[in-house]
Amino acid sequence: MLVYLNGRFQPREKAFVSVDDRGFVFGDGVYEVIRVVDGRLFTSSEHLARMEEGLHTIGIDRPADMTPARIVEIAERLLGENDLLDGHATVYLQITRGAAVRTHFFPTTPVRPTIFISTARFSPAPDLLETGASAVTCPDVRWSRCNLKTLNLLANVLAKQSAVDKGAVEAIFVRDGVVTEGSSTNVFVAVDGQLHTFPICNYILAGITRGVVLELAGELGIQVHETPARAEDLVRADEIFLTGTTTDVLPIVEIDGRPVGSGTPGPLALALGRALAERMSPSPANAGL
Fold first, then answer.
1. Is the pTM higher than 0.85?
2. Fewer C-beta neighbours within 10 Å, C or N terminus of the chain?
3. HSE-up (13 A, CA, CB side) for residue 73
4. Mean pLDDT of 272-278
C-alpha cells in the first residue's frame, strides 16, 4: 500500500517519522478522515477547510506548496495507485508541527510540518441503518477545545473502549448533565416531538457529516433544534442517532441497556440515513460534492 510522507510516495512499511516529531511526542497536530465513494472524495472541501482552521488555531503554518488542491491531487493518486477507485474507501490526512528538540513551547527555529496522507479500503455497514446499535453514556471529562480535531484523542479512546467493553458501538459524552457528542460522532436526540443536536461551539467537533445531515433535514422538511438534549432525555427519547464520516447515520436503539423508543430505528433516522446514502452515491447530480 502506497502512502505519502513529506514529499515522497512510498510503501507504507517503509514510511517512518522522526522520534522527535511533535505529533509523536506531544500529539501536536491535526488530522482529517475523508470518505471516498468510487474514487470521489465526499465533502473534501469542508474537511480541508476545517483542517485549515485547526492549523491556524494551533499556530501551524501549512506549507505554501501543500494547497488544498495539491492535497486532493495526492489523495487521488494514492487512491488510483492503491486500486481504491471502486467501492468505499477513506483518505487519512495528518499534519504535525514537525520534528524538533523536545520543548513544551514551539520550536524556536522554524521546521517544516510533517505531512502524512494514506488511503484505505472501507466497508460500510448499511444493515445497521435498519437494525440500529447500542451505546453507553460516559462523563465528558475532555478539555474545552473539542472543536479542534487534534491528535490528542486519549479521552475519546478510553470512552470508546468503555463502550466496546460493554458490547456497545459508541460512548455518548455527558457534560454537566447535557449530551454533547459521541467519542467519534455527533449525536441527535428526538424527544417530545423535537429533534435536538448540540450547537456548534468549543465543546464539540463541527462534524462534516453533521452539517450534511442538517442540510438534508432542511430539504426533507425535518426541523432540527441546535439546542442540547439533557441526559434524562436519553431515557425517554423517541429516537437517538449518530452521524460521522465512517458512521453515516446510525440509529441507537439501546442506551445504557435500556431500549430507545420502540427499540427499533425511528423514521427520522431512516429518512436521513437513506437521504445521506443517496447524497453520497456517485450519481451525476452529486459530481461536484
1. yes
2. N
3. 7
4. 98
